Every structure is written in C-alpha cells, then in structure tokens.
C-alpha cells in the first residue's frame, strides 16, 4: 500500500518513513504544499498523511484543491491543535480522519489502513479470497487456517490483487504499490514475486491477463 | 441612585419647584406690602371722611345722651371681608360717642392722630385716629389684622393651588423628555449587552448624537484593538502548539521505531534523530523563554550607556556553534564606541541574530559581525552566506513562528521575531537585506546617548 506523507519536520518525517515502512506501507515524503500537490497529480496513493502547517501554506489548501479536482484519495490529517473547531474544519474540508500530535505510531498506521479501506469501499480490515486470509494490520496471512509466510513485497502484491478481486492489476501499478521514489525497481521484480506467490498458493491462484497484468482466479468451477 | 436619568429628573424637578417657591415667597412679600399700603390709605381716608361728615354735621353724635345710638353707615357688604372696617368716635373726655355696627366696645387706641396697633378682645387691630378738638371728639377707624392677613393669604393661595396642580404635570413632561434624551444611550447599552462575548464587531455609528459619538468611537476603537490582540494570541497559540507538539511527535515516532525495529541501522538512525529532536526542542524552549523575557521587559527597561563591543564579544564567546565560523571585523577604535541600550535585551537580540545567521550559512562559510557609527546611532551588522530571503518573504520573517521556504532544520521561526521585539523596545531598528550574490545582511541600529 503506497502512501504520501506531507510533513516538514525532519525528525518526524524520518520517523514516519521508517515507522510506517515497518508497518508495511510504501512511503513517499514531501515537505511543502507545492510538492504535495505535484506528487498527488503524478501518482495515485492509497492514503495521504497531511500536516496542517507547512512552510508554504496550510495543508487544508492542499486538501481543498485535491477535492476540487475530484480526487477522492483518503486523507488523514496530522495536527498540533487538537481542538474541536480545528477537527471540524479539517473534516469539513474533506479529510477522512484526524490525528493529534504527538500520536502513537500503531494508531496512525491503523487509521491509515482504515481510511484506505473505506476509500476502497470495504468494511472489513481483513481480506479473504479462496481460503487465503490477509490481515494488513498485523501483516499476517493464512491459507485454509494454516500459517502462510510471505515477505513484505509478496504480501503487498497479494494485497493489491485481493483488494480488487476479479479485475486485473497492471505490472506498473503493482510496482508503484511496492516501491517508493527512492527505491530501485528491478525490471522483473513483479514477476519474481508473482512466481513465488504461485509456488506458495498454487499455480492457479493468480492468473496472467495478457497485455493487462494479473488478477486472482475466480472460484474453481 | 447613580443613574443619569434619575439624577436629571431630580435636578430638574427640584429646581423647577424651587423657582416656584421663590416666586411665591416674593409675591407673598410684595403683596403683603402692597395690601398694607392700600389698606392703610383706606383707613386714613375713612377716618377723614367720618371726621369731615361730623364737622359738617351730616351725622349726629349722641354727645349728650352718653352714646346710646351707634353709627352704622360704614359697614361694607361683602361676605368674606365683612366687618372689615370698624369705626369708633370717642369724646375727648373718654366717652364712647358712636361706633359702627360690629366695632368692639373697648377703645381701639389711646394714641392721638396717626396709625397705631392694638389688641382688643384678643383681636389685633390696625387703627388710624383723628383728634378733632373743635368737636371735642376722636375718630378711630381700624381694621382687623386677621382680615388683612387673610387677604394676603388668599392671594398666595391663588398662586399655590395652580402650582400644585401644574407641578406633577411638569414632572411628567420632564420625565418623558429625559427618557427621550437618554434613548440613544439605552440603545447602545442594549446593543452591547445583547451581543455574544466573542462578537467584537463595531457598533453602528451613523446618526449618533454629538454627545455620544465620541464614546461609541472609543468603544469601536477598543473593540478593534481587542480583536487584533485576540487574533494575534490565537495565531500565536496555534503556532506554538504546532512548534511544540511536532518535535514531540517526531520524538515519539522515532522512539517507537527504535523499539519496533531489530535492524541495527534503523535503530541507530532513530536514536540519532531523537537526539537531534531534543536539541531542537531545547532551542525552541530557550527561544520561547527569550521571547517572554523580552516581553516582560515592557516598562522596566534598564537603558544604560555602554560599549556594544563588550556585548558582541560576550555573545560570540558563548556561542555553542563552532567558534571558527564567526569573524569579528573590528578596528582599533571600535572598543570606544558607546551606545544607549539595555544589556539583557541587546544580548538576546544579538545572540538570536547570530544564531540565525549561523543556522542558514553553509558549514564552511563564516558569519561576519561589524560595528559602525552613524549619525545619532550605532550599527551592528551581521552578514551570512546563506541562501538569502525571498523578496516576498522579507516583510514577514520577523513575524513569530514564520519560517520561510529556506528554513533550516533547527529553526523555530522565533529568532528574528525576538531580535525585532528586543531592538524595537530599545528604540532601535532591525533592517534585513539580501546580499549579492547570496546571503543576508542584518543591520541592527541602536540609539546613542544624548548630548554626548
């Protein structure tokens, strides 16, 4: 799951990149409103974590212009002023959730997952498909009730596919989900992860849709 | 009661009443004098008339038979003032020769020709008598004091009764006028008391009476100043919350990363970040304390004549940053330059200014400090080799918590605000200019002592 963190404090940005990375997110960071708007136009994110006071303006302006462009990416606001009026203003401007500083990293991660889930139109946090259960909160997976060990990247690929079962996901989209700006992507990285997943889940679990990418196989006929 | 309308009402009614009372007293006195004069003249005339009638023998006197037949022709037929005049004619040897119908039996006076007063049978009389030696009689005409007083009393009563009727009406008219006159004040009081505590919008000020307009203008002025102060405080609080809580959020996040990660490199990085975050928070707290120290100096400035060079040297010595990064460009006689300043404030201003310059300069460039004398002031110039300040941000960099795009990672947005506050309080100025090709030149001007 790829998220954008908009925050200008260097210590906090560093911590968020490291901490949310550990929680299984692919994290991009920017420090200004301008960079945030540019990143949001260039890239699709599952969730945006947005600070309100930025060097070149207010995060609320970024949020408003995002919503004006009919971009429904879920937004979680970070703010120091944890007062009702501020929360109302943030939520009314189109935010999906609101976290007051200082926050708990696990709580922030959970709220990001929840916002992304609601953004994708799902109520449950757990993904299920043909006996495979993914729990993004715990980064845990199981197959028919038994344990299933996945690497972080494999988990990411499977999750991206299970979030939209039945519809194909392109190789480029999978790469974007898995790798942030700073990370080098090997040309066949996605194929390698798919191959490993097939060997763990069964060859028929993930189908290749020629020219479009990959999708999960329908229930066995 | 301390109310303008009731005070006005009391004063107006009391003074109107007092005017009426004085008028009544004056009319009473003058009427009394006039009545005395007229009645005295009438007494005299009546006495003379009786005397002359006697002399011409138009009336017969019972001189011989001892006063059995009284005279009756002088009674006036008037209801209230009946028996006003009484006439007695006495022979000079002391016999009552004749009298009018209601005249008392006792002698009205013992005096000779002229006016006199006497009490007969418990009644006071004013009497005029004429001695007529030719006839051997004394004519006395008198009127009752009581009747005279009643006459005057009736005149005064005629004045007091309408007054008594008019006064309540007058009070009503005064009351209504006062209420009318006070209605703009009541309107303003109502407008103020009915608004919410947070409503600091100005009061309507069209069609105001001239007497109230200054008060309304003053109130509106106060409202706008309170509003400004509140807005300033609000934004200060918002910025302070952000600047204090963001580093805390950073510390907490890094601590949680350090706890969660088993990767040595991530662990070490998190701890380094925590250490940097603590340094930054420390600086922020120090600057907030500096700012409150500057503000606390309000009104208790200790301006003294001293050598700015001493302050500059001390600030440079105490700087925790690498000492090699600061250079003092001083000439031999700079030590002798004197200025008028508050040592604490100048130290705070200079320390924050130099710190700001160091934070924005590359590590391998020096920050230079110079001292210069100009007409009526002393300049301290701090120059750095940082990225400079964009022209659009120049006017705003001295605002509290303003951090431009070229922010340093350790800045809080308070440094230049402290410098500006401190220097303004000492009557000096801070001017920031971009240098070519890059960097900022900060000019700190402080006043010189007068008459030196």
TrEMBL record, chain A:
SUPFAM superfamilies: C-terminal effector domain of the bipartite response regulators, CheY-like. It is found in: Cytoplasm. GO terms for molecular function: phosphorelay response regulator activity; transcription cis-regulatory region binding. Residues 124-218 form the OmpR/PhoB-type domain. The modification 4-aspartylphosphate is found at residue 51. One of its GO terms (biological process) is regulation of DNA-templated transcription. Pfam families: Response_reg (PF00072), Trans_reg_C (PF00486). GO terms for cellular component: cytosol; protein-DNA complex. Residues 124-218 bind DNA. Keywords: Cytoplasm, DNA-binding, Phosphoprotein, Transcription, Transcription regulation, Two-component regulatory system. PROSITE patterns: OMPR_PHOB, RESPONSE_REGULATORY. Residues 2-116 form the Response regulatory domain. InterPro entries: CheY-like_superfamily (IPR011006), OmpR/PhoB-type_DNA-bd (IPR001867), Sig_transdc_resp-reg_C-effctor (IPR016032), Sig_transdc_resp-reg_receiver (IPR001789), WalR-like (IPR039420), WH-like_DNA-bd_sf (IPR036388). It comes from the Bacteria. This is Response regulator transcription factor. It comes from Pseudaminobacter soli (ex Zhang et al. 2022). The lineage of its organism: Bacteria, Pseudomonadati, Pseudomonadota, Alphaproteobacteria, Hyphomicrobiales.
UniProtKB/TrEMBL annotation, chain B:
GO terms for cellular component: plasma membrane. The keyword Phosphoprotein applies. Its EC number is 2.7.13.3. It catalyses: ATP + protein L-histidine = ADP + protein N-phospho-L-histidine. PROSITE patterns: HAMP (PS50885), HIS_KIN (PS50109). This is histidine kinase. It is an enzyme of class 2 (transferase). InterPro entries: 2CSK_N, HAMP_dom, HATPase_C_sf, HATPase_dom, His_kinase_dom, HisK_dim/P_dom, HisK_dim/P_sf, Sig_transdc_His_kin-like_C. Keywords: ATP-binding, Kinase, Membrane, Nucleotide-binding, Phosphoprotein, Transferase, Transmembrane, Transmembrane helix, Two-component regulatory system. It holds the Pfam family HisKA. Residues 179-231 form the HAMP domain. The keyword Secreted does not apply. SUPFAM superfamilies: ATPase domain of HSP90 chaperone/DNA topoisomerase II/histidine kinase, Homodimeric domain of signal transducing histidine kinase. Residues 239-450 form the Histidine kinase domain. It comes from Pseudaminobacter soli. It is found in: Membrane. The chain crosses the membrane at residues 7-29, 159-178. GO terms for molecular function: ATP binding; phosphorelay sensor kinase activity. It is a multi-pass membrane protein.
């Amino acid at each position: 799951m790829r998220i954008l963190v908009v925050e200008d404090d260097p210590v906090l940005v560093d911590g968020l990149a490291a901490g949310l990375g550990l929680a299984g997110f692919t994290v991009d960071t920017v420090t200004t409103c301008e960079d945030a708007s540019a990143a949001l136009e260039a890239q699709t994110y599952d969730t945006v974590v947005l600070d309100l006071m930025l060097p070149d303006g207010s995060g609320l302006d970024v949020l408003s212009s995002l919503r004006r462009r009919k971009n429904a990416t879920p937004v979680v606001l970070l703010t120091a002023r944890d007062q009702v009026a501020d929360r109302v203003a943030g939520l009314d401007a189109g935010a999906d959730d609101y976290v007051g500083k200082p926050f708990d990293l696990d709580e922030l991660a959970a709220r990001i997952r929840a916002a992304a889930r609601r953004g994708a139109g799902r109520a449950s946090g757990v993904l299920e498909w043909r006996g495979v259960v993914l729990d993004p909160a715990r980064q845990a997976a199981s197959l028919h009730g038994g344990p299933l060990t996945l690497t972080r990247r494999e988990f990411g690929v499977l999750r991206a596919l299970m979030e939209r079962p039945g519809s194909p996901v392109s190789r480029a989209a999978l790469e974007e989900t898995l790798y942030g700006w700073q990370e080098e992507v090997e040309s066949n990285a996605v194929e390698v992860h798919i191959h490993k997943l097939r060997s763990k889940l069964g060859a028929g679990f993930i189908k290749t849709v020629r020219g479009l990418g990959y999708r999960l196989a329908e229930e066995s006929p | 009661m301390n109310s303008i309308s009731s005070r006005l009402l009391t004063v107006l009614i009391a003074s109107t009443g007092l005017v009426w009372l004085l008028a009544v007293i004056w009319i009473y006195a003058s009427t009394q004098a006039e009545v005395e004069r007229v009645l005295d003249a009438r007494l005299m005339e009546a006495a003379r008339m009786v005397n002359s009638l006697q002399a011409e023998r138009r009336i017969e006197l019972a001189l011989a038979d001892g006063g059995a037949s009284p005279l009756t022709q002088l009674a006036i037929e008037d209801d209230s003032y009946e028996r006003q005049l009484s006439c007695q004619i006495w022979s000079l040897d002391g016999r009552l020769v004749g009298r009018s119908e209601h005249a008392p039996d006792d002698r009205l006076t013992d005096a000779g020709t002229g006016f006199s007063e006497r009490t007969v049978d418990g009644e006071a009389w004013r009497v005029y008598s004429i001695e007529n030696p030719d006839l051997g009689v004394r004519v006395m005409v008198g009127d009752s004091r009581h009747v005279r007083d009643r006459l005057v009393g009736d005149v005064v009563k005629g004045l007091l009764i309408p007054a008594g009727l008019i006064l309540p009406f007058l009070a009503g008219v005064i009351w209504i006028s006062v209420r009318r006159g006070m209605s703009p004040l009541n309107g303003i009081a109502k407008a103020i008391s009915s608004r919410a505590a947070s409503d600091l919008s100005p009061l309507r000020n069209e069609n105001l009476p001239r007497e109230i307009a200054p008060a309304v203008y003053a109130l509106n002025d106060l409202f706008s100043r309170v509003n400004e102060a509140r807005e300033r405080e609000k934004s200060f609080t918002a910025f302070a919350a952000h600047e204090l809580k963001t580093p805390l959020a950073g510390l907490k996040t890094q601590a949680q990363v350090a706890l969660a990660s088993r990767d040595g490199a991530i662990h070490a990085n998190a701890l380094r970040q925590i250490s940097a975050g603590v340094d930054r928070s420390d600086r922020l707290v120090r600057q907030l304390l500096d700012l409150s120290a500057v503000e606390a100096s309000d009104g208790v400035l200790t301006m003294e004549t001293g050598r700015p060079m001493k302050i500059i040297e001390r600030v440079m010595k105490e700087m925790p940053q690498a000492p090699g990064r600061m250079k003092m460009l001083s000439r031999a006689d700079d030590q002798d330059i004197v200025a008028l300043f508050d040592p604490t404030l100048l130290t705070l201003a200079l320390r924050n200014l130099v710190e700001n310059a160091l934070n924005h300069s590359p590590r391998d460039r020096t920050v230079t400090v110079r001292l210069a004398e100009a007409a009526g002031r002393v300049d301290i110039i701090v120059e750095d080799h940082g990225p400079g300040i964009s022209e659009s941000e120049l006017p705003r960099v001295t605002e509290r918590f303003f951090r431009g795009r070229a922010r340093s990672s350790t800045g809080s947005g308070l440094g230049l605000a402290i410098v500006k506050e401190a220097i303004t309080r000492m009557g000096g100025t801070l001017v920031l200019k971009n240098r070519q090709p890059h960097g900022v030149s900060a000019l700190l001007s402080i006043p010189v002592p007068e008459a030196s």
